[in-house]
Specification:
By secondary structure, the protein is an alpha/beta fold. A 6-stranded mixed β-sheet has the order 3-4-14-9-10-13, with helices on both faces. α3 packs across α11, α4 runs antiparallel to α6 and α11 crosses α12. The radius of gyration is 21 Å and the shape is globular. The model has no long low-confidence stretch (mean pLDDT 96).
C-alpha cells in the first residue's frame, strides 16, 4: 500500500516519497509529513536477530513505498558499509545504569552520518524515478555537523552540487576544519556573519524565492535540502530507535513488552522526532526526554506550551544545539493540532512575525510523551569529568547534555525505566571542551591536535580517520559573507559552474 506525503501548511498533498525527497521543503514553506505513521510489521523475535542494514530496510520500506525492494536495498548497502568503523554501525554501550547509543562511527564522526550516508543514494534514485534531468543543488544550513556529513555524502556525486552555510564563529575548530578542507568540484562551504538561525532562515528564504527558482530551472538546476527538514533525512533516523529496541531484546536487557526511555540532545528537533515516530510505529518507548543546553527554547516550550525565540543566542560548547528555531518541531505541532494546516500556518506565521507562539491546552495534553530538561555549561562539563572518573567512558559535549538531562529526570521522577541516551558525536569532534572538562589544569594550554593525541592515550580509542585526514589538509573554502548576501553567493557559485 502506497504511503503518500503532504505539507504541514496544506499547500501540497498526495506527494510520493521520492518527490518529497527531491523537493526537500514544500513549496508553501511547510514540511512534508506522511498521511499516517505505519506500524512495524516485524515481531520482536525477528527484530532481535537483525543487523542494522536489515532493520533499516524493514523500517524504510514502510515509509518510502515508491522505492522498489531492489532500489532500497541498494541504497542501504551503499550507505552502511566500510565508511563506518564498526560492523554493527551503531553500538549500544552500557555505562553504569544507562545505555549509550553511539551514532558517531561514520565518516565524519557525528550522528548526521547515519542519515546523510544514505540521502545521496535516495536522492539520485528518486531523480531517475521521476525522470529528473536537471542537476540537484543541495542547499544546507549547519550548526556544525550536518554540513560536513552532507559534504562527504554529496562530494563528486554526478548530477548534484552542494552549498553549505555555517555560522563563522559558532562551530568548534575541528568542525570548521572538517568543512573548509572538503574536497569535491561540486562543493561550496560558506561562513556567515551570524548564528545558525540566521543561516537556516537565509536558506529557507532562498528556497522560497520563486524568481531564483525559475532562474535555476532555466539553467537546468533545482534546489533540494540535506537538512532534517527533508524526509529523506528524517526516515533513516527512525531506524536508530527500532534497532535499539532489537539490541536491547537480543542482549536480554529488556523483556518483550518492557518499555524504555530515550534521551536525545536536541537542536533542530529531527532526532527526537524520529524517536517519537518510532514510538508511533510500535517501539515501546515510554518517555522522550528532550535535552537542551543553555539555549533552552525547547525546555521552556515543554514547560509552558509557549515557544519563544525572543532571547539571547548563547554560544556553547555543544554548538550543534545552539539553535533557537527548531524547524522539525513544526511536524509535531501539526500532529498535535489534529493535522490542521490552518492552525499550523497561524502558529508559524506568529513565530515569523512576533518570534513566539502559544499552543492550546488541548495541544499541550498531546505532548505527554515528552518532557524537557536542560544542562548548563558547568553541569555538562562536570558530567564528562565524573563519568570518565567513575567509568572510564569519554563522551562529547552534546552527549553530556543528554546524560545530565537523564540524571535530572531520574532524580526528579524516581523513574527506574531503563534508559537509552543518544550519543550524537565523537569526543574527538570537541577535544578541547572534553579534555578541559576532564582536567583543565593539565590540558588547558595544549593545541587542538595535541589534545587529539592526549584523548587517544586517555581513552584507548584510536584517533578516527576523519581527524587524521584534516591534520595537514589544505583549506579549500574561505568564503565568508553577510546574511543578506547568501543569495548572491549561491548565484555566483552556480553561474561559475
Amino acid at each position: 500500500m502506497e504511503l503518500l506525503y503532504k505539507s504541514t501548511r496544506g499547500g501540497e498533498k498526495g506527494v510520493t516519497a521520492s518527490q518529497a525527497i527531491l523537493q526537500g521543503l514544500a513549496k508553501d514553506g511547510g514540511l512534508f509529513v506522511p498521511y499516517e505513521i505505519p506500524k512495524l510489521t516485524l515481531t520482536p523475535e525477528k527484530l532481535a536477530k537483525m543487523s542494522y542494514q536489515e532493520t533499516a530496510y524493514e523500517v524504510m520500506k514502510l515509509f518510502l513505498t515508491d522505492f522498489t525492494e531492489e532500489e532500497l536495498k541498494h541504497c542501504i548497502k551503499s550507505a552502511y558499509d566500510d565508511k563506518f568503523d564498526t560492523e554493527v554501525i551503531a553500538p549500544l554501550v552500557k555505562v553504569d545504569q544507562s545505555y549509550y547509543l553511539e551514532l558517531f562511527h561514520g565518516a565524519t564522526i557525528a550522528f548526521k552520518d547515519m542519515a546523510l550516508s544514505i540521502l545521496p543514494h535516495l536522492m539520485t534514485t528518486a531523480a531517475k524515478k521521476n525522470q529528473i534531468t536537471r542537476e540537484i543543488v543541495i542547499l544546507t544550513a549547519t550548526s556544525g555537523d550536518t554540513g560536513k556529513a552532507a559534504l562527504a555524502g554529496f562530494a563528486d556525486v554526478p548530477g548534484t552540487k552542494i552549498i553549505v552555510f555555517y555560522p563563522k564563529d559558532g562551530v568548534s575548530p575541528i568542525q570548521e576544519k572538517q568543512m573548509v578542507t572538503q574536497k569535491g568540484g561540486n562543493t561550496l562551504v560558506v561562513g556567515i556573519k551570524g548564528n545558525f538561525d540566521d543561516a537556516q532562515s537565509g536558506v529557507k528564504a532562498i528556497f522560497g524565492d520563486r524568481g531564483l527558482e525559475e532562474e535555476l530551472r532555466e539553467a537546468g538546476d533545482q534546489f533540494s535540502s540535506a537538512n532534517s527538514i527533508n524526509i529523506g533525512r528524517l526516515v533513516p533516523q527512525i531506524v536508530y530507535y527500532v534497532y535499539t529496541w532489537g539490541k536491547l531484546l537480543e542482549n536480554q536487557e529488556l523483556t518483550e513488552n518492557e518499555p524504555f526511555n530515550v534521551v536525545v540532545p536536541t537542536g533542530n528537533f529531527g532526532n527526537i522526532l524520529a524517536a517519537y515516530y518510532a514510538k508511533q510505529m510500535g517501539v515501546p518507548i515510554r518517555k522522550l526526554i528532550c535535552a537542551s543546553n543553555d539555549n533552552k527554547v525547547l525546555y521552556d516550550f515543554f514547560q509552558t506550551g509557549t515557544y519563544d525565540k525572543n532571547r539571547d543566542f548563547i554560544l556553547t560548547s555543544s554548538p550543534s544545539m545552539d539553535i533557537l528555531i527548531s524547524s522539525n518541531l513544526e511536524r509535531l505541532i501539526y500532529r498535535i493540532a489534529g493535522a490542521d494546516a490552518e492552525k499550523d500556518v497561524a502558529l508559524m506565521h506568529a513565530l515569523t512575525k512576533e518570534g513566539r507562539y502559544e499552543i492550546t491546552p488541548e495541544m499541550r495534553e498531546k505532548l505527554s510523551d515528552f518532557c524537557g530538561y536542560y544542562a548548563t555549561e558547568a553541569e555538562a562539563a562536570e558530567i564528562i569529568h565524573q563519568t570518565f572518573a567513575d567509568a572510564g567512558y569519554v563522551m562529547d559535549t552534546h552527549t553530556a547534555v543528554a546524560a545530565c538531562a537523564c540524571k535530572k529526570y531520574q532524580e526528579e521522577t524516581k523513574d527506574q525505566t531503563k534508559t537509552v541516551i543518544a550519543s550524537t558525536a565523537s569526543p574527538y569532534k570537541f577535544t578541547r571542551s572534553v579534555m578541559e572538562a576532564i582536567d583543565r589544569e593539565k590540558y588547558g594550554k595544549m593545541g587542538d591536535f595535541e589534545l587529539v593525541d592526549q584523548l587517544s592515550a586517555l581513552s584507548g580509542v584510536a584517533v578516527p580517520r576523519a581527524i587524521e585526514e584534516i591534520r595537514t589538509a589544505p583549506v579549500r573554502h574561505n568564503t565568508v559573507c553577510e546574511v543578506q548576501d547568501m543569495k548572491q553567493v549561491v548565484k555566483r557559485f552556480l553561474q561559475a559552474e
